[in-house]
Amino acid sequence: MEKEKTYKAHIMLLAYHGQGHINPMVQFSKRLASKGMKITVTTTLSNIKAMKKASSSSVIFESVYDDATEGGVGAPGGFQGFLDRFEASGSTNLAQLIKKQENSGYPIKCLVYDANIHWASNIAKQFAIPGAAFFTQSCAAIASYYPMHCDLSDKSLPFPAFSMPGLPPPKLPYLPSLGAVTGQYSPIIRFICKQFDNIENAEWVLFNSFDKLEEEVVKWMSNLWTVRNIGPTVPSVYLDNRVENDNDYGFNLFKPSTEVCMQWLNTKETGSVVYVSFGSAASLSAEQMAEMAEALKQSRHSFLWVVKPTEIKLPTNFVEETSEKGLVVAWCPQLEVLAHHAVGCFISHCGWNSTVEAISFGVPVVAMPQFLDQMTNAYFVEKVWGIGIQPKENEENVTSAEEIGRCINGVMNGKEIKKKAKQWKELAKEAIDENGSSDKSIDEIISWILAL
Ligand code: UDP
Fold first, then answer.
1. What family is it from (predicted)?
2. Are 16 and 24 spatial neighbours (Cβ–Cβ below 8 Å)?
3. CA 332 to ligand 1 centroid distance, Å
4. Is there a smaller number of Cβ atoms within 10 Å at the N or the C end of the chain?
């Protein structure tokens, strides 16, 4: 009979719904498991259904909210309705799951929750277990929201805001169910600022980032909370290769055209392809789509463009007219694509995961942020890390084909940009490798939990 596995302690992680949230949380759980921890990842049922079974038997998945039956963001009440139902069912189910473990050999020793699920900290408190808030955005993006939170909660900022000169105010997506704008802040900003509710109760505040990447912001933020960077949360095979069988996220919103993409890339020369993707949530406007199509058509470079089924259709005949140098797919295996030698440039919306992946693979970026934290990430890509160029927009927030073309060439021919991208890639690897800053942070958290 197989000997029962023993663990150092049991940690529960609560992941928010959506590709950009689940990926870093599951990756963090694999890291913890590789260091001898038993892990339960809890999230919505639809997240779990979309997940490939984890390669490690130390990671168990449990649903705390049946959004498949009760309704996701598309059900009545829209996004707000989803949030309300998730909190109502999720908090009860999460409490039950923690309770169930109390008398097992491995009671829960720490609850790591996505900061968007701010109510989780009350559950941790209820069971007297420490909570750790996990932000799936950059330290800088969170720093940029903090003054708004202080304003909204009538607190004064304890010290000057983190300075990002020239950063434009964030563009905001429109989510009608969150209600109308009242007062100075839009409902989406109010929703984002809820992440700071109860944050002072969190023993640790975690980020999918690494110290050198956001050195100054981390210093600034450490005056507020016990901040630790535990990233990049990119699968280990691409970085330090110390986590067994960790070669993908195991989660895909849409079915990726893996074979088609990889076979096509295999026919291309090193550094010759422009990869274009705007992540899982953003959709280009019809005007922007037309300009992007024109830019790619005019460019002398080959391109791989992800156009999701939820996005506006491409101009008529675009695929046929560009078939010699272009490939359009509904979803791709982005990690494999970015890791491929043929990819020389990433036109990205600069979602935080895509940004961290571009850094980890050393792929330079044409930064076209669509909303919220993407704008801070794009600012850092160009102005702080020097690994890309952000094209200019006109008054209607559209970037012309000509401007996109200028930036593609700037990146494809940019020696300094490519050099910086390579340097950051090495620093990303170093951070998560044995005794790197993120590895040390993970060990520190584990030691702290074991000493409880
Ligand atoms: N992604 C993917 N295939 C695609 C497009 C995106 O696997 O065709 C993945 C990408 O690797 C990243 C995630 O989807 O991990 C998108 O997260 P990000 O934070 O960049 O953007 P969001 O979708 O949250 O806006």
1. Belongs to the UDP-glycosyltransferase family.
2. no
3. 9
4. N
Ligand 1, pocket-test mutation among 137, 327, 332, 353, most atoms within 8 A of CB? 353
Q: Which residue has the higher pLDDT, 170 or 53?
A: 170
Tell me whether residue 2 is in a domain: no
For every residue of 245-272, DSSP letters joined together read: T--S--B-SS---HHHHHHHHHTSPTT-
Task: Name which of 314, 311, 256, 313 is nearest 282 in CA terms.
Answer: 311
Instruction: Say whether 348 sits in a helix, a strand or coil.
Output: strand
Distance 1 CA to ligand 1 centre (A): 42
Q: What is the mean pLDDT of residues 361-385?
A: 97
User: Residues enclosing ligand 1, CB less than 6 A?
Assistant: 19-20, 23, 277, 279-282, 306, 331-332, 334-335, 351-354, 357
For residue 173, give its domain range: 10-250+432-450
Same structural domain, 392 and 442: no
Task: Please tell me the distance from the alpha carbon of residue 356 to that of residue 345, in angstroms, as a whole number.
Answer: 14
Q: Cα separation of 361 and 289, whole Å?
A: 27
Whether 50 and 162 share a structural domain: yes
pTM: 0.96
385 and 422 share one domain: yes
Ligand 1 pocket mutation pick from 19, 249, 355, 360 by most atoms within 8 angstroms of CB: 19
- Domains contained in the chain, number: 2
Residue 2 has pLDDT above 60, yes or no: no
Distance of CA 20 from the midpoint of ligand 1 (Å) = 6
| Backbone phi and psi for residue 11, each to the nearest 5 degrees, phi listed first | -115, 135
C-alpha 287: how far from chain center: 27
pLDDT tens-digit profile of 191-220? 999 999 999 999 999 999 999 999 999 999
Q: Give the ligand 1 atom nearest the CA of 136.
A: 19
Return the residue matching tokens 């010699």: 324
**240 and 122, same domain (yes or no):** yes
Active site residue 21: yes
The answer to whether position 359 is within a domain reads: yes
Backbone CA torsion sign across 190, 85, 134, 207 = negative
Per-residue pLDDT averaged across 106-119, rounded?
97
CATH of the domain at 418: 3.40.50.2000
Record the tokens describing residue 440, joined without a space: 């040390």
Residues 404 and 445 both lie in one domain: no
